[in-house]
Amino acid sequence: MARRLLRRFSIGAGVHRNVGIADVVISGGGIVGSALACALGKSSAMRDKRLVLLEASSENASLPQPGDRYGNRVSALTPATIQFLKDVDAWETICSTRMKSFRTMHVWDSCSEARIEFDSKSVSDLPYMGCIVENRVILGALRRCLRNVETVENCQVNLVEKSPREVQLSSTGNEQLKARLLIGADGANSTVRKAIEGGKHYSKSYHQTAVVATLHFAEEIENETAWQRFLPTGPIALLPLSDTSSSLVWSTSPSHAQSLLQLPEDSFVDSVNSAFSDNVRNQSLPSRAVQALRSLNQSDHESVCKYPPSILRVDEGSRASFPLALYHGSTYVNDRIALVGDAAHRIHPMAGQGLNLGFGDAIALAKVIAEAAENGEDLGSEFYLRRYERERLRRVVPVMASIDALNTLFSTSNSALALVRGVGLQFTDMIAPLKTLIIKTAAS
Ligand SMILES: Cc1cc2nc3c(=O)[nH]c(=O)nc-3n(C[C@H](O)[C@H](O)[C@H](O)COP(=O)(O)OP(=O)(O)OC[C@H]3O[C@@H](n4cnc5c(N)ncnc54)[C@H](O)[C@@H]3O)c2cc1C
């Protein structure tokens, strides 16, 4: 692995040790920070630049071995993200470790059983809707691809001070490092963000918690479908990991999440199976409206019967929970600082877009930094950073707004709203060009 490690300093508290100036410092070596470091390290325009990646955790970003249990944190990667991973040479490692592509996606509403089915076959040149990959596999593969990047683990950035020509960082162990450009890739509780935003942001709690777990089926199947059912308490999703297992993401009320975590394994599995299959056989207005729409669509009869495979067991110790919140900073850039990934924006996982947006940030920021370098400009130049911000705001804000609106629309059993969304979902399912457009937008 061609990566240099910064010298480690062991010095007394209160004493600062200067470790020089870097052209670009990335604070946070999670998936998005590592992706950006890979892209910058690979760029010929950055060949003579000093790039530093600082990561607070000391956990080894190693790849799982064949036969190891699946990690409970997984991501659905879009074709655009996969193309980026190919460009930085990480995709081959991911494929040879493990990943699962999915071709179809079924989404349905528990209040009316209205449903929509997406199939990659409906779009030419789209071999799959996306791929499900464990987060540790993505991170391990990216870290293996780092070139020309000084990587320091177990190094937490604590303080950021700005001056016109550089940004100064203090980190664990009292090391001080200066940067022409500092990038905050340090996640939802970003330290770097605090240095730029002056407290202006939009945030809200969803009052939902996501329960994740690794689940196994009774028998081997052709597991090429991602399933998501909207319950009044939040969506429950099943993402393929292999032909015998899938990953669960169940967003629900915090108290229900707590009880799901505490249930005996058998009862937990029963709860998951019921949440996916309990049928609504009532004569409510939303159900009748959806049935009427379906009867207009002859080809729908087949899809009505499609339900996820029955779950047999859950991996011991794989259950975990994550509180869900929305966050959007008032700006992504300022005074030689830029934010990427969850440091800049955090969204509900129901559409599997959070990490994909982070990859989009990494791609866009790497591009403007390389352009500044090619033109012999200051890498912290506001002119280039604002271009990055404009491009990303155009993409991120509409995605955030639509996911937030969908979550509000689906997280209620109010019959008027259930009617609107049931009819809307079923109607969209009947309009093939609209579905193709949705698939293309989600893939980009
Ligand atoms: C249940 C769930 C399911 C999800 N599913 C999907 C999905 O299917 N598809 C998708 O696209 N997205 C998904 N997401 C969202 C996705 O997980 C996040 O958007 C993504 O992990 C954010 O990556 P990041 O690198 O920006 O931040 P993080 O993963 O939080 O990484 C930040 C890194 O910075 C380090 N750090 C923090 N503070 C400091 C500091 N002061 N100094 C140095 N280092 C620091 C941390 O140790 C960490 O390594 C999901 C989220 C949840 C909760």
Kindly describe this structure.
There is one protein chain. The protein is an alpha+beta fold. The protein has a single domain (17-443), classed as FAD/NAD(P)-binding domain, CATH 3.50.50.60. The protein has 13 helices and 20 strands. The chain has helices at 31-42, 79-87, 91-97, 135-144, 191-197, 254-262, 265-277, 285-296, 301-304, 354-374, 382-410, 415-430, 432-443, and strands at residues 17-27, 51-54, 74-77, 100-102, 104-109, 115-119, 130-134, 149-152, 157-162, 167-171, 175-184, 201-217, 225-231, 234-240, 245-252, 311-314, 320-329, 333-334, 337-339, 345-346. Strands 5, 6, 12, 13, 14, 15, 16, 17 and 20 form a nine-stranded mixed sheet that branches. Strands 1, 2, 8, 9, 10, 11, 18 and 19 form an eight-stranded mixed sheet that branches. A three-stranded antiparallel sheet has the order 3-7-4. A hairpin with a 5-residue loop joins strand 5 and strand 6 (115-119). Helix 10 (354-374) runs antiparallel to helix 11. The protein is globular. The relative contact order is 0.18. The model is unreliable at 1-15 (pLDDT under 50). It binds flavin-adenine dinucleotide. Flavin-adenine dinucleotide binds next to helix 1, strand 3, strand 12 and helix 10.
